[in-house]
Amino acid sequence: MSKGSAGKVAATASLVIDGLEKAPGSSAAAIAEATGLGRSTVTRKLAELEKVGLASRTPGEREAGVRTPDLWKLVKKAAGSRGSKASAGNAPSGTAKASGPKGRSASARESDQSGPRLQRGELGRLVRDYLDTHPGPHSPSEIASDLQRSAGAVANALVRLVDETEALLIQVSPKRYQSTEEQLRRRSNASDK
Q: Per-residue pLDDT averaged across 80-104, rounded?
């Protein structure tokens, strides 16, 4: 893991710890809302904190046939240690305090593996631009790797782009996509010959 990645992981863990300190007994969704992180990121960090003994989970119960969310809290330190709460220094990969909107620094707004968090519709624009600037058909995983994004999210964006006629599904199995602009260029070049 690079230094930059370790810093992002540390900042994310710090935000989750801060969220637990401010609202013990909260669900992962509530902590995600309070910190501005994604729910899946918070859930993963909580599991890591639980594994190293810094957080504890109270499993959700069944109410009217529906399972309530698990509730989380920080684990108190052993007697004789300074402070009553788990220190950020014991968190996985270390931690760095964050500040800014919703208590988040610029590096904390970046997810662990996929670059900065995107606004609504931004991934679709990135994928469309990629197809427009990279000739030839591409698989969702190839595009995801180049953009450093989730292959599933890129595949979903490609389906939307096809529905909006901004991309073409060139091959069904395995799926390969290409820009409609490139398709038009190919057709015009073929007719010019």
A: 41
Q: What is the mean pLDDT of residues 11-23?
A: 84
**Tokens for 13?**
């863990």
Write b or e for each residue in 113-131: b if 16 or more Cβ atoms lie within 10 A of its Cβ, otherwise e.
ebeeeeeeeebbebbbebb
In this predicted model, which residue has the larger pLDDT, 90 or 36?
36
**Helix 39-51 vs helix 3-22: angle between axes, to the nearest 10 degrees?**
90
CA dihedral 74, 46, 123, 144 (to 10 degrees): 150
DSSP H helices in 36-87: 39-51
| CB-CB contact of 126 with 132 (8 Å) | no
Percent of the chain with pLDDT over 70: 69
Looking up tokens 């994310």 gives: 12
Would you call the peptide bond into 174 cis, given omega within 30 degrees of 0 as the criterion? yes
Give the Cα separation of 135 and 172 in Å (integer): 18
Residue from 84, 78, 83, 107 nearest 95 by CA: 107
**Residue type at 117?**
R
For 25, 55, 151, 177, the CA distances from 91, given in Å and listed in that order, are 19, 10, 29, 42
- How many CA within 13 A on the CB side of residue 132? 9
Q: pLDDT (tens digit, 9 = 90+) per residue, 150-170?
A: 889 999 999 998 888 888 888
